[in-house]
């Protein structure tokens, strides 16, 4: 078996291929791939990449298709020190063009990712069954960039996040340590691989020698439940919007799997308290692990619902002893417990830089990555979010978190809502909140909502403008796209 | 009714009507994701003035099953 000392995740996978060669690593439909075959195919794919003339440090663009070939290519690039730029081929064309322009990959891999002026290969072109000899580079380091992930750009153009081999291994190790994913687990992966959450789940599962079942998406819940049953799945990841979807379409049917599911990882957006309680009721013995993190600082904190049942409004504690979280002021000075400031993170999974030098401006306070999220720490070391710093609404000098208003409105029974800053029509206060609402099961008029909010919020936090909409625009990972609402 | 259901699905998903075959299912095309699925259900309910029973929603995974369900509810 070959060696990859620069990549701890690959080292783990190689160890499983040696010690448990017949253990199933990947399942896609009827195809079952053992760890031995997975590593052989990674090696073959590496030979193919070398035959194309690709060298360490070169970049390739990978379409995040939920197929075994994606996994082979992804790790083949890591083996050779080639940098992956993982994208969703269904992204808007201008986003893909922007990423192409910035990242300048030498080859694009994907069945639906034709790009003008660049060599394009579909997954089917790659001879995975042929094992060419690979000349492995000897001077690769764990600090070399493994992946460039482009963030969703809710506050501007997409930013390329440079993640090293050590970063992605650190995130997998922290996450597995907290959740407890182990060799005997079988995980259904229905999250998109183009995002940090889904790609991270893939690395977590393969690094502990567990089995990863690739599922297209959550759209067809009947298929997803069928996979849970037939593959004896013990864990999966989801975003809060998926839980809403599961509730809406299947009621409590998922409770039949409560006995077999050892863990569910939740993340990427806030989850209403009622949903957390419902999950605890349906899954009384499952570890329900909600993460807080960003592509730049993946899985920085965790809250497990059952063990932290009295603090479900918290985003939890740092994920491991190798992660530190602080609340800092604008000058990078630590703030006292209970005082709101910017959540800043340092640790083994925190990216060292963005791809473009100009994006690094103001990204760090020294070694502390600035998340742009606003919140505080309590005396027990738990952290609480109150909003995104850049999204705070400044009402006549009073800083208002849109999240606070949204929580109050949601408690009244609307299905969804989002608040943004708009200019005060009276021209006095600077900014005032505007609320966008999606109708829920409860029949509510704006006047009713305003009336009832007056019991929940101070006057300056009650929205001045209101609008019913069909849908709150969110990224595919569930984050509210406030800029879209403003435009 | 069948062509009306297909027309609504195509419009909601913003795909060509030719794509909306009987055996097309949720998850088969990127446009028919979970958000698209919810939009199909709510648009069919609004425009055809009907309400899918909660216990049936789980099984409404294909164009054919949606057509059959709409026919069933319209007959009542």
Overview of this protein structure:
The complex is a heterodimer of chains A (487) and B (76). Chain A has 487 residues and is α/β, with parallel strands linked by helices. Chain A has two domains: 8-383, Rossmann fold; 392-486, 2-Layer Sandwich (GMP Synthetase, Chain A, domain 3), CATH 3.30.300. Chain A has helices at 8-19, 35-51, 68-80, 93-103, 165-179, 196-207, 221-230, 240-250, 273-282, 402-410, 446-453, 482-486, and strands spanning 24-28, 31-34, 59-63, 83-87, 107-109, 119-121, 145-150, 160-164, 186-189, 211-214, 235-238, 263-266, 287-294, 297-304, 317-318, 323-328, 341-347, 353-354, 364-365, 368-377, 383-388, 393-395, 398-400, 416-423, 431-438, 465-468. The longest helix of chain A is centred in the first third of the chain and has 17 residues, at 35-51. Chain A starts with 7 loop residues before the first helix and ends with a helix. The model of chain A has no long low-confidence stretch (mean pLDDT 91). Chain B has a single domain, classed as Non-ribosomal Peptide Synthetase Peptidyl Carrier Protein, Chain A, CATH 1.10.1200.10. Helix content of chain B is 57%, strand content 0%. In chain B, helix 1 (2-13) packs across helix 2 and helix 1 (2-13) crosses helix 4. The radius of gyration of chain B is 11 Å and the shape is globular. The two termini of chain B are 15 Å apart. The mean pLDDT of chain B is 91. The chains are: A alpha/beta (487), B mainly alpha (76). The A-B interface holds A 90, 216-223, 241-242, 245, 248-251, 253, 471 and B 25-27, 30, 32-39, 54-55, 57-59, 61.
What's the SSE blueprint?
The complex is a heterodimer of chains A (487) and B (76).
Chain A: H1 8-19, E1 24-28, E2 31-34, H2 35-51, E3 59-63, H3 68-80, E4 83-87, H4 93-103, E5 107-109, E6 119-121, E7 145-150, E8 160-164, H5 165-179, E9 186-189, H6 196-207, E10 211-214, H7 221-230, E11 235-238, H8 240-250, E12 263-266, H9 273-282, E13 287-294, E14 297-304, E15 317-318, E16 323-328, E17 341-347, E18 353-354, E19 364-365, E20 368-377, E21 383-388, E22 393-395, E23 398-400, H10 402-410, E24 416-423, E25 431-438, H11 446-453, E26 465-468, H12 482-486
Parallel strand pairs in A: 1-10, 3-4, 3-5, 4-7, 5-6, 9-10, 9-11, 11-12, 12-13, 25-26
Antiparallel strand pairs in A: 1-2, 7-8, 8-18, 13-14, 14-15, 16-17, 17-20, 19-20, 20-21, 22-23, 24-25
Chain B: H1 2-13, H2 34-47, H3 54-57, H4 63-75
């Amino acid at each position: 078996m070959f060696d990859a000392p620069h990549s701890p995740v690959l080292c783990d996978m190689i160890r499983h291929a040696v010690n448990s060669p017949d253990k199933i690593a990947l399942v896609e439909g009827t195809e079952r791939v053992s760890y031995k075959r997975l590593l052989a195919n990674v090696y073959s794919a590496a030979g193919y990449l070398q035959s194309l003339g690709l060298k360490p440090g070169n970049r390739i663009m990978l379409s995040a298709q939920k197929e075994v070939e994606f996994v082979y290519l992804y790790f083949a690039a890591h083996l050779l020190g080639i940098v992956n730029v993982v994208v969703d081929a269904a992204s808007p064309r201008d986003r893909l063009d922007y990423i192409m322009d910035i990242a300048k990959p030498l080859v694009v891999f994907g069945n639906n990712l034709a790009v003008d002026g660049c060599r394009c290969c579909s997954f089917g072109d790659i001879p995975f069954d042929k094992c060419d000899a690979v000349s492995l580079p000897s001077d690769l380091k764990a600090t070399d960039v493994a992946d460039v992930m482009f963030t969703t750009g809710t506050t501007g153009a997409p930013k390329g996040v440079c993640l090293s081999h050590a970063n992605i291994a650190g995130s997998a190790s922290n996450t597995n340590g907290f959740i407890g994913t182990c060799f005997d687990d079988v995980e259904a992966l229905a999250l998109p691989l183009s995002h940090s959450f889904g790609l991270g789940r893939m690395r977590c599962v393969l690094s502990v020698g567990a089995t990863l079942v690739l599922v297209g998406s959550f759209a067809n819940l009947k298929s997803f439940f069928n996979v849970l049953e037939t593959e004896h799945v013990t864990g999966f990841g989801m975003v809060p919007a998926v839980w809403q979807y599961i509730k809406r379409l299947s009621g409590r049917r998922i409770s039949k799997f409560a006995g077999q599911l050892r863990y569910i990882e939740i993340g990427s957006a806030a989850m209403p308290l009622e949903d957390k309680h419902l999950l605890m009721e349906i899954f009384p013995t499952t570890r329900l692990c909600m993460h807080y993190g960003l592509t730049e600082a993946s899985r920085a904190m965790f809250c497990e619902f059952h063990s932290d049942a009295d603090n479900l409004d918290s985003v939890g504690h740092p994920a491991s002893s190798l992660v530190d979280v602080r609340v800092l002021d604008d000058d990078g000075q630590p703030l006292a417990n209970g005082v709101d400031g910017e959540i800043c993170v340092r640790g083994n999974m925190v990216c060292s830089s963005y791809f473009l030098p100009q994006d690094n401006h103001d990204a760090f306070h020294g070694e502390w990555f600035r998340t742009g999220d606003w919140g505080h720490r309590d005396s027990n070391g738990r952290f609480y979010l109150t909003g995104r710093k850049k999204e705070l609404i400044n009402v006549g000098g009073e800083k208002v978190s849109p999240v606070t208003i949204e929580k109050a409105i949601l408690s009244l029974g609307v299905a969804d809502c989002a608040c943004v800053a708009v200019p005060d029509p009276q021209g006095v206060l600077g900014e005032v909140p505007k609320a966008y609402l999606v109708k829920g099961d409860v029949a509510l008029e704006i006047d009713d909502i305003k009336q009832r909010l007056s019991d929940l919020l101070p006057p300056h936090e009650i929205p001045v403008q209101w609008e019913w909409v069909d849908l709150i625009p969110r990224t595919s990972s569930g984050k509210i796209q406030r800029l879209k609402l403003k435009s | 009714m069948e062509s009306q259901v297909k027309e609504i699905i195509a419009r909601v998903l913003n795909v060509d009507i030719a794509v909306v075959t009987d055996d097309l299912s949720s998850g088969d095309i990127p446009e028919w994701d979970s958000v698209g699925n919810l939009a199909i259900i709510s648009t069919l309910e609004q425009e055809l003035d009907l309400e899918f029973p909660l216990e049936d929603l789980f099984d409404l995974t294909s164009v054919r099953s949606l057509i059959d369900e709409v026919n069933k509810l319209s007959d009542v």
